[in-house]
Design a protein that fits this description.
469 residues; alpha+beta; Methyltransferase, Cobalt-precorrin-4 Transmethylase, Domain 2; Heat Shock Protein 90; 3 domains; 4-stranded mixed β-sheet; 13 helices
């Protein structure tokens, strides 16, 4: 007999997956429960072959991860009888509200009553949605097992900044990235390599003018991955934006750089966006918008103290309050944040010697926080018109290129050299789009590099590529 905590299915209906998956969500939003597959409604064993059972588990895993948020935590037990198998899927209760995600409808909340699963009432939803406020959401366990992921990027960052100390599995559990029974928490999903968590996305866009205007951009790239990876991707993207200049060779995230932005300031800004993002808001990404005169870094979810809209306010008026304590604590342990929460102060101090017009600012609403960093090299009277792209033309200094490359190259040639160090097979069309210039400009830069003996062509004109000498 089916009860509040037990439901039977002969098999999982693949044409109507919402019917059984909502039971998962209902169990998780209550005290947990057991979905028994291979039984009729009366609880009589029907069974299936080993091949059918394995295929059912694979299908179940895939659907739960696609359509529940946070991913429901459960275990699978095989039950054997008369050479056939049944499955006992034990669903664990969740501290956070679990949603059923369906591309055809808005996410839904289901609850479990005696013997049935139903949509939550408005009163029930109001009560349940208060649950995440009583604990840190990033501590929420998920159904992703530790054995399915790696933490190589995090381990390297931790080792590099903690006197080569190794980050062990026991430490991952102590830091609450992994539960005692080897499941990832939300924080674990945020830090695991090549994270598939839908909220670990960043979109970097370059705009030719000082506003979005007609929404025509010169370049846009989307990145997915761990918190450590997104920081690196964001900084690397900014370093190759034609609007900006950086002095010297960037050798790591800890190097102090000079030019349009200080490297540590960029890191602080990206860490802030990842650490304070509201991970309960799905479907939105961190946005890095690069304009000639500034960078705007936006993350879903406002800072906790804001209740009203704030526009273009000075950064010193913002009070940083930690939303995701597990995530923040991990950044502290990797030396990417300080326990005192002085990230904003570092950014403010970086610009202290410049005029008021360069002061860091922010905007905020109920569902977003945007940090605005001014390009130190930007001068309104220095805006160039070359190639019909409104870019800033500051002092001609080396731009993130290998140290053995002559400094008397054109700015575009320097950019091309830097890009070829990370992607030798890139085409002139891609380079032109990436840097916001014409292909003709890129071809001139390549000709300059070839004449100076810095690059050579490998392979045919059609299928070959340029290689740094």
């Amino acid at each position: 007999m089916e009860t509040k905590q037990v439901e039977y299915k002969v098999t999982l209906d693949r044409n109507n997956w919402q019917q059984w998956l909502k039971t998962f969500c209902g169990f998780s939003n209550a005290e947990g429960g057991n979905l028994l597959i291979g039984y009729n409604n009366g609880g009589v064993f029907v069974g299936m072959t080993k091949q059918e059972a394995d295929a059912t588990v694979r299908y179940l895993n895939n659907m739960v991860r696609q359509h529940t948020e946070p991913v429901v935590k459960y275990t699978v037990e095989y039950i054997e009888q008369n050479d056939l198998l049944a499955l006992n899927i034990a669903v664990a209760p969740s501290k956070a509200v679990v949603w059923l995600k369906d591309s055809q409808t808005q996410p839904l909340i289901y609850v479990r009553d005696e013997g049935e699963t139903r949509l939550a009432t408005i009163a029930e939803m109001q009560d349940m949605l208060q649950k995440p406020e009583t604990y840190d959401f990033d501590r929420t366990p998920t159904g992703i097992k530790l054995s399915e992921v790696s933490f190589g990027e995090l381990e390297e960052a931790y080792r590099r900044n903690n006197n080569k100390e190794e980050l062990t599995t026991q430490m991952l559990k102590s830091f609450e990235l992994v539960t005692p029974d080897d499941y990832l928490t939300i924080a674990g999903l945020i830090f695991c390599d090549d994270s598939k968590y839908e909220n670990m996305r960043m979109v970097c866009t370059t705009w030719p003018g000082r506003d979005k205007g007609s929404l025509r951009y010169t370049d846009s790239k989307e990145y997915c991955g761990s918190a450590i990876q997104l920081i690196r991707y964001g900084i690397d993207y900014i370093h190759y934006v034609l609007h900006y200049n950086f002095g010297g060779l960037k050798e790591g995230l800890e190097r102090k750089d000079v030019g349009s932005f200080e490297l540590l300031t960029l890191r602080e800004a990206l860490v802030n966006a990842i650490a304070h993002r509201d991970y309960r808001i799905n479907g939105n990404e961190i946005a890095v918008d690069c304009f000639p005169d500034r960078i705007e870094i936006s993350s879903p979810g406002t800072m906790l103290q804001f209740t009203e809209r704030v526009s273009n306010a000075k950064l010193e008026t913002a009070i940083s309050m930690r939303r995701n304590k597990v995530v923040c604590n991990m950044f502290v342990r990797c030396k990417y944040m300080e326990e005192k929460g002085s990230g904003f102060s570092k950014i403010i101090n970086d610009y202290a010697s410049l005029g008021e017009e360069y002061a860091p600012r922010y905007s905020a609403g109920k569902n977003y926080f945007t940090l605005i960093l001014k390009n130190k090299e930007y001068r309104p009277d220095n805006v160039g018109k070359a190639d019909n792209v409104g870019v800033n033309v500051p002092v001609n200094v080396p731009v993130n290129v290998p140290v053995n490359v002559p400094v008397n190259l054109s700015k575009t040639a320097q950019k091309v050299v830097g890009y070829l160090t990370i992607n030798a097979t890139v085409t002139t069309a891609v380079l032109a789009q990436h840097f916001g210039v014409t292909e003709r400009t890129i071809k001139r830069a390549i000709k300059e590099l070839r004449e100076k003996g810095l690059i050579e062509r490998v392979g045919s004109d059609k299928n070959g590529y340029y290689k740094l000498k």
